Backbone:
């Protein structure tokens, strides 16, 4: 795999952190975003300790600020960086809170903005850069963008499963198809939809999940790497507009 310049939003979250670390250790140039300056510096420190020669850049940016695109483009220009790959992964868990069984207007708008509008705006901004190198966009979605949640997984379904999350992830999958047409043939655009990833769940939740999933387990953090590696490889050069589902078979029944 030739060295690529990869831009990953939400680089300090569960999925983002794993992708950032993986691609740096594979000798790619990685730029990532984080709302937290402290988490940004910590991730760079951790990756550099693991792989001292790694090329990693962090940008402390809030996608809910009006000037976020210009801030990112200025950073890239100052560092003489032009991404080949954009991985849209940023989220804000605050928008998945549920009050009295209802998702508020604020949380609907916030989740949709970060999950659909920001990926669109970033994709177009990178595409329209002078002498753009952009050739590959990977959007991070979820199995809940493919199927609705199973109430039997939850102890209190209406208070634990936010409706705006799945609806937004479904919209992101459709954005992928739209951009695959609009940016062809120069840029490939695909989605990866992950199943549940271990880390925040207790043993009872994991057992219920296992009973509902064909492979009988939640994803491990390292399982997020394979789909991204594939979509970065020459083996996927004829794949665009697709949703690669990595969910242990959850969505087949």
Residues:
């Amino acid at each position: 795999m030739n060295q690529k310049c990869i831009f990953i939003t939400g680089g300090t979250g569960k999925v983002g952190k794993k992708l950032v670390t993986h691609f740096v250790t594979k000798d790619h140039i990685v730029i990532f975003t984080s709302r937290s300056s402290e988490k940004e510096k910590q991730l760079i420190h951790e990756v550099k300790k693991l792989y001292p020669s790694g090329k990693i850049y962090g940008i402390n940016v809030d996608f809910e600020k009006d000037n976020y695109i210009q801030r990112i483009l200025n950073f890239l220009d100052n560092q003489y960086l032009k991404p080949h790959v954009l991985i849209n992964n940023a989220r804000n868990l605050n928008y998945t809170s549920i009050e009295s069984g209802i998702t508020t207007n604020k949380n609907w708008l916030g989740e949709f903005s970060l999950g659909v509008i920001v990926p669109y705006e970033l994709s177009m901004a990178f595409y329209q850069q002078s002498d753009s190198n952009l050739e590959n966009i990977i959007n991070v979605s979820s199995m809940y963008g493919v199927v609705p949640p199973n109430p039997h997984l939850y102890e209190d379904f209406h208070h634990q499963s936010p409706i705006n999350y799945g609806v937004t992830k479904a919209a992101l999958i459709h954005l992928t198809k739209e951009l695959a047409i609009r940016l062809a043939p120069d840029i490939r655009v695909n989605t990866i939809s992950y199943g549940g990833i271990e880390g925040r769940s207790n043993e009872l939740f994991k057992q219920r999940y296992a009973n509902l999933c064909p492979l009988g387990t939640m994803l491990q953090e390292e399982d997020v790497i394979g789909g991204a590696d594939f979509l970065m490889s020459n083996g996927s050069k004829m794949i665009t507009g697709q949703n690669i589902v990595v969910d242990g078979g959850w969505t087949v029944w």
